[in-house]
Inverse folding.
């Protein structure tokens, strides 16, 4: 695993760029632990100061230092993405592997649920969810909801691989030797689908962060927990652009774009790594 | 004389599918009887799609829908117990598999999971059947590999790092590590070149002699049968058409199909061009009436078109299903 990582860094420029970008973003998020100001306090610095050496990213109209506020925001946003990805990956793996391996009625039942989730329009559902929950809406609840909506595509993908694995000789030999279904899935099939899952995980984090930002900007989430989207929401509430406080919008957007690009590059390079033909072409050329 | 290790009687296994209101029934194995004695290598020959693999899958009870067993029984008489493969509980089956009965699957080079090291294949498939600690088990595996002239280092390799012949040997080692009493080998030498094939055959033979196991060996390669097997069964169109000691079958085939199979082997000094059989193997979803070989048989007469010939004993231990077995010309 370590060697693959080093090889990828050396040979795959996209991967290297992705790793560098994400490391920077992560480092920035880690700075929140040494922040001099708690995230929800306001008027701790003079409001509306442009970026300067004492306030690197300027200050907001609510008297917060944008640099330190943003470290909290990106930390929450990243955590949100990772939480959604982990929960939805578990769902997708279990459902995809079981459906592909079992086939028949189990497969059809699971896949009809799966297809239902694929065709459901997510945005109206999430907005509706906000209006139902209103004051109970929290960061964790939204993550759980997104995870429950975000597994379907990958479950289908994993199922398609599992379908072919089921007919391979090592599966048949496993069944013959008396391995239980759980052991076959975990020990024989899971290692096969993990690289695919890794690649789709990046996409899934991107997707959930994008959704979270969208919902937050519109105010359909818990607006008291600072995330990148919530930051932009407050900037809009204070008509930052009209007032000329451009940095309040610019830095959150910049940061979220860097995160996106980093994750996207990782996903693309992993895709390439999974396909042995393009991998060989790269390491030889 | 002891009871035979394996008794198959009246076995009938069909693939039954039903889609869009159309029912299809492929009669892959029809009324097969056979007995295999302890310590014997039994060869099963026949062209592609004649039901060889289906027969041994049914024998090993490794069947999955749409394959169904309609009639007949498969009974193994192991040293200390008798087991009816299709009447036994799952626990009983799990208990005998690998330990007493092992199965080298077709395309067995792919038995090793490409994303896991070879060691894991041994642990996954055989570990629980041996009932020892992990370290002891791995020592056992290493000793077994050494006995088969394989480097124990292969355990740490990924399957793609081994050559085809190596993988095949590892698979055979995997199937024999628990010292089974009965080994089912489905085309273990197909897709190997003759040099590697020879090594693999020698290995199977050595294992068999060491363990005293019985073996069913399936291949369409008659030359391999001539070299390896003690007795030989010929299948055609889902039926066993001839069975006898390998030497007898080669010396004096009693079924025209067998005669053709043997005649197709190249021989030193024989310059005459080989003649193939006309026609194609029967469609098992709609087999011809009577003898299934009659559309391609040079000896076919009226009775062959009407009735299916029964398996009859023509000489000691030599059976064939043909009305004209006395007219079959020896090669």
């Amino acid at each position: 695993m370590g060697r693959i990582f080093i090889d990828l860094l050396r040979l795959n420029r996209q991967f290297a760029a992705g790793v560098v970008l994400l490391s920077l973003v992560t480092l920035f998020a880690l700075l929140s632990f040494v922040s001099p100001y708690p995230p929800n306090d306001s008027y701790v610095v003079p409001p509306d100061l442009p970026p300067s050496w004492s306030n690197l990213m300027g200050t907001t109209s609510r008297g917060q230092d944008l640099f330190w506020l943003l470290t909290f925001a990106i930390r929450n946003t990243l955590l949100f993405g990772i939480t959604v990805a982990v929960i939805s990956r578990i769902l997708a793996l279990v459902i995809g592997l079981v459906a592909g391996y079992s086939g028949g009625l189990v497969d059809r039942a699971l896949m009809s649920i799966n297809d239902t989730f694929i065709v459901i329009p997510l945005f109206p559902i999430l907005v509706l969810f906000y209006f139902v929950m209103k004051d109970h809406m929290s960061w964790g609840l939204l993550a759980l909801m997104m995870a429950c909506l975000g597994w379907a595509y990958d479950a289908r993908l994993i199922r398609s691989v599992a379908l072919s694995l089921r007919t391979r000789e090592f599966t048949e030999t496993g069944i013959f030797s008396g391995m239980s279904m759980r052991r076959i899935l975990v020990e024989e099939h899971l290692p096969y689908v993990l690289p695919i899952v890794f690649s789709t995980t990046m996409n899934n984090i991107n997707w959930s962060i994008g959704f979270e930002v969208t919902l937050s900007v519109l105010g359909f989430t818990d607006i008291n927990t600072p995330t990148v989207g919530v930051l932009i929401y407050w900037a809009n509430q204070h008509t930052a652009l009209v007032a000329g406080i451009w940095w309040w919008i610019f830095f959150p957007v910049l940061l979220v774009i860097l995160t996106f690009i980093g994750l996207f590059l990782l996903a693309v390079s992993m895709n390439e790594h999974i396909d042995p033909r393009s991998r060989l072409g790269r390491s030889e050329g | 004389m002891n009871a035979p290790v394996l008794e198959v009687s009246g076995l009938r296994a069909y693939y039954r599918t039903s889609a869009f209101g159309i029912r299809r029934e492929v009669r892959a194995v029809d009324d097969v009887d056979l007995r295999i004695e302890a310590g014997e290598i039994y060869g099963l020959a026949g062209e592609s799609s004649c039901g060889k693999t289906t027969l041994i899958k049914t024998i090993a009870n490794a069947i999955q829908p749409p394959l169904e067993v309609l009639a007949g029984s498969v009974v193994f008489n192991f040293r200390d117990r008798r087991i009816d493969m299709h009447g036994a509980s799952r626990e009983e089956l799990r208990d005998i598999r690998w330990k007493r009965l092992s199965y080298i699957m077709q395309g067995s080079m792919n038995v090793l999971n490409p994303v896991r090291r070879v060691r894991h294949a041994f642990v996954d498939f055989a570990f629980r059947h041996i009932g020892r600690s992990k370290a002891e088990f791995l020592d056992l595996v290493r000793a077994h590999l050494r006995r088969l002239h394989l480097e124990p280092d292969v355990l740490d390799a990924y399957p793609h790092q081994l050559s085809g012949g190596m993988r095949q040997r590892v698979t055979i080692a995997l199937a024999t590590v628990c010292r089974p009493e009965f080994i089912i080998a489905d085309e273990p030498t197909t897709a190997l070149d003759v040099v590697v094939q020879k090594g693999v055959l020698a290995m199977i033979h050595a294992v068999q002699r060491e363990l005293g196991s019985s073996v069913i060996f399936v291949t369409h390669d008659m030359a391999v049968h001539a070299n390896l097997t003690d007795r030989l069964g010929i299948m055609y169109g889902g039926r066993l058409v001839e069975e006898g000691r390998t030497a007898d079958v080669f010396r004096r085939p009693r079924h025209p199909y067998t005669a053709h199979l043997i005649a197709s082997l190249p021989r030193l000094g024989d310059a005459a061009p080989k003649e193939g059989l006309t026609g194609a193997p029967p469609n098992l979803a709609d087999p011809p009436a009577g003898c299934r070989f009659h559309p391609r048989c040079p000896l076919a007469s009226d009775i062959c078109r009407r009735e299916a010939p029964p398996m009859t004993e023509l000489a000691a231990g030599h059976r064939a299903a043909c009305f004209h077995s006395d007219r079959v010309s020896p090669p």
Observations:
- The interface with chain A takes residues 60, 62, 93-94, 97-98, 103, 105-108, 110-116, 120-121, 124-126, 128-129 of chain B (CB under 8 Å).
- Residues 247-267+274-331 of chain B form one domain.
- The longest strand of chain B covers residues 22-36.
